[in-house]
């Protein structure tokens, strides 16, 4: 579905800057927190996980193992406990993307019976190089301690999710694909289940012959593991008035897989060109397997230049000799984009549990920015949540007092201990790369003790954007690609006639509309004759729009990208 919005003549006389929050709709809380009884034909589980990533699947596996062990010890005293996983993609891994150089420890903890070579990793990290780039040159620099990857493993997170799904199903966990969840069922202060999105609507919202109504799924415990910028997680936290010392902030990552003629044998990280000193971010390139290379760019979403375009900056980056020599003559076989929570320790919500609910993984913000790692945190947080849920099942008590045991375990875990040491690291770069680099070095040397207290920050949508002239980049279709060509490589198969799932304000100036067009790596937004045009089917669910532009909501099953090895 394509939507047009007219510009507002009063807003066309804007100052030379703006804040994205002034052009965003509020989270539609009443449409997400549903204070109504489940339908009479609702499906019931004891525990339901929303999303099928490493946090969800790790949690489901841990819970199933604990239940099995308890029943074997007690002669079946706990009984049969049903565990369900609801995934919005039409296939497992279809919406998962990560740089995925993984710390294996939590996988070894979850599967102590398996050898390292039996885990779902492509290869161990053997060598890594870090560069500072200018437009034509690359200067090798010492690898910062948090970025050292010896002992870690390269992987495709899509492959990891599929492998974990098989392990979960072997333990009796029921995993369902094509079930996007768009609401939480609540009674009083308790979450009692979820409601899925309906499907088969035309672009006006009318029923088509293929129409399927929403389904209600009830559970004693709902586990939110939606990944980055989870809509349900946002809604629950707002509904409960749960805050964090600092707001969450994000980065946008754009990634490609290449079939190459030249082999790459080491990991590459870079900083500097094509980013300016005031733009926080960097690149990665690593061998996924022989002659298959993953390459990507990650950029903080607090950049000030309104015409900054993450996709085209990434395309420009690939023209640097250090990347060109690996990719030239090869073929780009897959493309994708995803946002990453970057706030760290001070952006973790003060409470991650409630009556009948817990929040885990990226939805909770468990990512360590200096080491560029979050997968092992996701898996571990799922396992910790599973242990708290297991105790709740034994007591038949699912209130916040019981489930808050998860919060206690998380707060004393290695996750929060590590995030504490790097608590101000990302925030140090708010004043630019060079000053930030010096501060980050001091923070590393002092274990995070420098500069002492919390550095205050604003959310990305409150960061001022400065209007600037559009820059042009013409892709060659061989090494560099347009947004249209890129979205095709994401496997996106969304119906053209689907209703728009993006909630945008109508009166945006042409300048703000251009900001949206630059922001989105998938070409969802265009400006035609001064009007904002929304090509909603292009969306790959990276959530960048939800952070800085139109609100994202779940759409019908099977929509969005179909990643294979991202």
Question: Overview of this structure, please?
Answer:
The protein has 566 residues and is of the alpha+beta class. It has two domains: 2-30 and 121-154 and 250-341 and 458-552, D-Amino Acid Oxidase, Chain A, domain 2 (2-Layer Sandwich); 38-115 and 158-246 and 344-423, FAD/NAD(P)-binding domain (3-Layer(bba) Sandwich). It has 15 helices and 28 strands. Strands 3, 4, 5, 11, 12, 13, 16, 22 and 23 form a nine-stranded mixed sheet that branches. It has a seven-stranded mixed sheet with strand order 9-8-18-19-20-17-21. Strand 8 and strand 9 form a beta hairpin. Helix 2 (54-74) packs parallel to helix 4, helix 2 runs parallel beside helix 8 (375-395) and helix 8 packs antiparallel against helix 10. The radius of gyration is 23 Å and the shape is globular. The protein starts with a strand and ends in a 14-residue tail after the last strand.
List the helices and strands and how they pair.
Blueprint: E1 2-5, E2 17-18, H1 29-32, E3 33-34, E4 43-50, H2 54-74, E5 83-87, E6 101-102, H3 105-110, E7 123-124, E8 128-133, E9 138-141, E10 153-154, H4 157-170, E11 174-177, E12 181-187, E13 190-196, E14 199-201, E15 207-212, E16 216-224, H5 231-240, E17 250-259, E18 267-272, E19 281-289, E20 292-300, H6 310-317, H7 321-327, E21 331-341, E22 353-354, E23 357-359, H8 375-395, H9 400-403, H10 405-411, H11 414-421, H12 433-445, E24 465-466, H13 483-488, E25 502-503, H14 510-519, E26 525-528, E27 531-535, H15 544-548, E28 551-552
Helix pairs in contact: 2-4, 2-8, 8-10
């Amino acid at each position: 579905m394509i939507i047009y919005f007219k510009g507002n003549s009063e807003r066309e006389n804007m100052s030379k800057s703006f804040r994205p929050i002034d052009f965003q709709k509020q989270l539609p809380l009443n449409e997400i927190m549903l204070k109504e009884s489940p339908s009479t034909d609702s499906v019931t589980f004891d525990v339901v996980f929303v999303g099928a990533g490493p946090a969800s699947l790790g949690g489901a596996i841990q819970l199933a193992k604990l239940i099995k062990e308890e029943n074997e010890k007690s002669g079946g005293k706990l009984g049969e406990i049903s565990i369900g996983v609801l995934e919005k993609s039409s296939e497992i891994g279809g919406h998962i993307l990560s740089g995925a150089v993984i710390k294996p420890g939590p996988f070894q903890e979850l599967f102590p019976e398996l050898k390292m070579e039996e885990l779902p990793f492509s290869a161990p990290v053997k060598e890594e190089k870090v560069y500072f780039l200018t437009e034509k040159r690359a200067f090798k620099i010492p690898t910062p301690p948090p970025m050292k990857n010896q002992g870690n493993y390269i992987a495709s997170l899509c492959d990891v999710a599929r492998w974990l799904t098989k392990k979960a199903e072997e333990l009796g966990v029921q995993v369902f694909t094509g079930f996007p969840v768009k609401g939480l069922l609540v009674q009083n202060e308790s979450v009692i289940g979820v409601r899925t999105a309906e499907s088969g609507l035309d672009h006006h919202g009318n029923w088509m012959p293929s129409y399927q109504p929403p389904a209600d799924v009830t559970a004693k415990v709902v586990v939110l593991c939606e990944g980055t910028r989870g809509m349900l997680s946002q809604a629950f936290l707002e509904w409960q008035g749960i805050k964090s010392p600092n707001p969450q902030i994000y980065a946008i990552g754009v990634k490609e897989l290449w079939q190459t003629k030249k082999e790459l044998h080491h990991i590459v990280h870079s900083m500097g060109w094509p980013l300016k000193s005031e733009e926080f971010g960097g690149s990665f390139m690593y061998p996924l397997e022989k002659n298959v290379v993953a390459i990507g760019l990650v950029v903080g979403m607090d950049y000030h230049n309104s015409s900054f375009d993450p996709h085209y900056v990434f395309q420009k980056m690939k023209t640097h000799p250090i990347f060109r020599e690996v990719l030239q003559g090869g073929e780009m076989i897959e493309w994708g984009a995803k946002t990453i929570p970057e706030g760290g320790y001070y952006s973790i919500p003060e409470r991650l549990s409630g009556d009948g609910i817990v929040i885990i993984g990226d939805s909770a913000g468990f990512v360590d920015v200096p080491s560029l790692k979050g997968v092992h945190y996701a898996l571990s947080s799922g396992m910790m949540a599973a242990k708290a849920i297991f105790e709740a099942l034994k007591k038949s008590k699912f209130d916040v007092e019981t489930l808050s045991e998860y919060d206690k375990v998380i707060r004393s875990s290695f996750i929060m201990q590590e995030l504490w040491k790097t608590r101000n690291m990302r925030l140090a770069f708010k004043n630019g790369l060079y000053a930030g680099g010096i501060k980050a070095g001091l923070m590393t040397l002092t274990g995070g003790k420098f500069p002492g207290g919390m550095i205050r920050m604003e959310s990305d949508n409150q960061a001022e954007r400065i209007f600037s002239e559009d820059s042009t980049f013409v892709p060659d279709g061989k090494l560099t690609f347009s947004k249209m060509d890129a979205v095709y490589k994401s496997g996106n198969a969304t119906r053209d006639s689907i209703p728009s799932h993006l909630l945008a304000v109508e009166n945006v100036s042409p300048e703000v509309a251009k900001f949206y067009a630059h922001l989105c790596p998938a070409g969802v937004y265009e400006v035609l004759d001064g009007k904002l045009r929304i090509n909603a089917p292009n969306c790959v669910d990276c959530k960048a729009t939800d952070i800085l532009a139109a609100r994202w909501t779940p759409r019908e099953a099977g929509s969005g990208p179909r990643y294979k090895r991202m």
